[in-house]
Every structure is written in C-alpha cells, then in structure tokens.
Write a structure and sequence with these properties.
single chain; mainly alpha
C-alpha cells in the first residue's frame, strides 16, 4: 500500500505537470517540481535533526516509567476489565497478561514494547482459536482496541509540533485524549454488537462509565468556557498533566530504587537512534507529497472537496487536514508526512495544523496492525475485523474534527 501511495503521488504529479506544460503553457511547473524535490529532502533532514533532542528527552522519560513499573501498574489496573471483555479466554491464561501489557505500553506510548507484546498476545489467543486460519472473537476485539487505543502520552505529536514552531506544542493534548477515547469506545461497542458481547456487567460499566464521565465532564467544562479561556485552561491542564506524569515516573523510580538517570540515558540513546532511523522515511514521503503539491494536484483535490463542503453550507476549514485522516488507516508514515506538510503549509498553530495533529494521534494504522498481528499467526479470514477497525477510525476522525472546533475553532 505504501509503495502504491508513494509511486502514485509522483506519477500523478508528473502527468498533471505535463498537462500544465503542454496544454496550459505553464513553463515553470517542472522547475517547481524539481525545486520541491530538493527543498523537501533538505526539510526532511532538518526536521529529523531537530527531532533528535526532543525525541531523546521523551524516550528517556518513557524508559524511566517503564523501569519504575508503570507498565505493571497499568497491567494490574486493566486486568479485571479484560477478563470481562474476553470471556472465552480462561482466567490466568497468558493471553490476558500479554494483552494488558500491550495496552499499557500503548497508553504510555512505548511503541517498541507494544508491538512485540501485541504479537505475543495474538499468538497466545491463537492457541485458543479452534479455526486457525480464521480470526476468533477475542482476536478481533483485541485488534480493534489496538487500532483505536487510548494514548496517554502522544510524544511524537508533541515532538513534531515543537520542531515545526508551535507556540505550545502540547496544547492538543486534552482534545487528542478525548478524541482517542471516543474512537476506542465506538470501536469497542461496534465489535460488541457484531459479537453479541455482554458489556453490561458491573465491572465493565464501572470502567467505561467512570472513563466516560471523566471525558464527558472535561468536554462539558471546556465547552462552557469562552474561547480564550478554553484555550488557556486546556493548555495549562495539558502541561500540568504532562509535568505531573514526569514527576510521577521519577517518584516511582525513587520508590522502586531504580536509577532514573541511567534509565533516562538508555531511553535517550533509543530516541537518538529513532530520530536518525526515520530520516529515509521522512525524505521519501515528504518528497512525494511536495511534488504532488507543487504540481497543483493536491490543491485541485482539496479545492474540489472544499467547494463541495461549502456548497452544502458547512464550514470547510477541516478540509485542509483531510489528507492526514484519509491516509491514517493505511500508512502511518504517509499520514505523518501529510501532518507535517499541513503544518508547514498552514502553520503548526493554524486550525488545520492542530486538527492534523489530533487526527494523527487519534487512531492507529488499522491495516498495518491487521497485517502484522494477524500475519504473525497465519490468519487469512479476518471476518468483521476490518469493518470494526474502520468504524473506530471514522469515529476518531469525526471526533477529532469536533474537538478541533470546540477547542480551537473560534481562535483559528
């Protein structure tokens, strides 16, 4: 899929540029394409280089939390809920432990730990699967929760926003947290509908009711504020929560007698390696998108969509973030490049830049997760997994648009 997107962007850009040259007489269009090639490749390197320090900082903090036992705390906290959501999995089965650890890692933004734990969980669930080439109910629900999982620390979003000049890179934290919760909840209920899952037991309702009340209360509170107060208070809350999490990790490290400094250095080294590793991917995708934009293809596509939305009588500011939303289920790196392109074109603190950031952090890459997790256990028949995953994605996108208008619509 990623190969098709990459080749498609460049080839379509070439043909549109050819049309402009031969039919419209635009003699500068190919010069613009070549300039976009060189400029975007240099920009990709500069972004990756600028990411190094921030990435090292946050992955260092994450390593402290991991060493201090935050993953274990989250695992214990989620275990009662998971026993109800996966009734076909026996009590104390290794799959429950692997699933809860995977979700805990996702919540903390520990992607390197989450993926192997997710594959391990899928392998354990496969031992209970009576039809080895067909996804079981438990495997489908686990995958859907993964594709729309709540992330408490969307570190990469903050990092890119900081690098691209956002005045307050974390001001999207609260709307992003609300958005990803809504997507997860919709995915859970959609899967429960297909599987006739009994979600109305006391334990499940206690978890979901408590979380929904908290998120609903945040929406109601911020919705009652004036636009300026909402932006200011959500920014304060975001920064207090993030600072509090860092301090919590440090205090847990002291309590568990973990060497926080050594853990931070180890995580920071991983952050440096990660920042260097993404350079080729950023170059590839940003070059393709820059050429696509320079040819005028992206403007044609967005212009047609914007005209349609305006003709229907709706505000069209969200259209500029639509490419990120459309690519997100298929390609994480493609969506990330689109998010960066949107922030570069419109500004990190523009409505479109903030919305693209929220969309990027609201869901996972559904088809990638499906391919990796189901591919690891040889499942070919996915049943309703794709439908439920995409329902969660669509819910996340609509929620992201709604939260962007609620928090930033008046200020944009």
């Amino acid at each position: 899929m990623l190969n098709a997107l990459w080749v498609g962007f460049i080839v379509v850009a070439f043909f549109i540029a050819s049309f402009k040259l031969l039919v419209l007489g635009d003699a500068e269009v190919f010069a613009a394409l070549v300039k976009a090639l060189f400029d975007s490749s240099r920009t990709a390197f500069e972004i990756a280089l600028g990411l190094t320090g921030v990435m090292a900082l946050w992955l260092g903090v994450m390593k402290i939390g991991e060493r201090a036992g935050m993953l274990e705390v989250l695992t214990r906290g989620l275990a009662p809920l998971f026993r109800r959501l996966f009734p076909e999995v026996p009590a104390n089965h290794p799959a429950l432990g692997a699933m809860t650890m995977n979700m805990g890692a996702n919540m903390l933004g520990l992607d390197n730990a989450a993926t192997p734990l997710g594959i391990k969980a899928m392998q354990e669930l496969q031992t209970l699967n009576p039809s080895k080439d067909t996804a079981s109910d438990a495997q489908i629900l686990f995958l859907v929760i993964n594709t729309a999982s709540v992330t408490l620390l969307p570190v990469t979003i903050f990092t890119y926003r900081a690098q691209l000049g956002a005045a307050d890179p974390t001001d999207v934290f609260v709307p992003l947290l609300i958005t990803t919760y809504i997507g997860t909840l919709v995915g859970l209920f959609a899967t429960g509908f297909f599987q006739k899952l009994h979600l109305w037991n006391r334990v499940t309702l206690a978890y979901l009711g408590g979380a929904t009340a908290l998120v609903g209360g945040m929406v109601a509170y911020f919705g009652s504020l004036e636009a300026a107060d909402m932006t200011r208070q959500s920014s304060i809350l975001s920064n207090v929560l993030l600072s509090g999490i860092v301090v919590l990790f440090l205090l847990m490290a002291v309590w568990r007698r973990v060497n926080a400094y050594e853990a931070f250095i180890e995580g920071a080294k991983e952050g440096f390696h990660t920042a260097v590793t993404i350079i080729p991917y950023l170059v590839a995708m940003l070059v393709a998108i820059a050429v696509f934009r320079a040819s005028g293809a992206l403007d044609l596509l967005m212009g047609a969509m914007r005209s349609t939305v305006l003709a229907l009588g709706f505000d069209a500011r969200w259209v500029d973030a639509l490419p990120t939303a459309l690519l997100k289920p298929f390609s994480g790196s493609g969506a990330r490049a689109m998010m960066i392109d949107t922030m570069q074109a419109h500004g990190a603190d523009s409505f479109a830049g903030r919305l693209a950031s929220i969309v990027q952090g609201s869901t996972e890459t559904t088809f990638y997760v499906l391919a990796v997790y189901f591919g690891a256990v040889g499942i070919r028949r996915v049943r309703h997994a794709v439908a439920c995953g995409l329902i969660a994605d669509v819910a996340g996108i609509f929620a992201a648009i709604g939260m962007a208008y609620l928090f930033f619509g008046a200020a944009a």
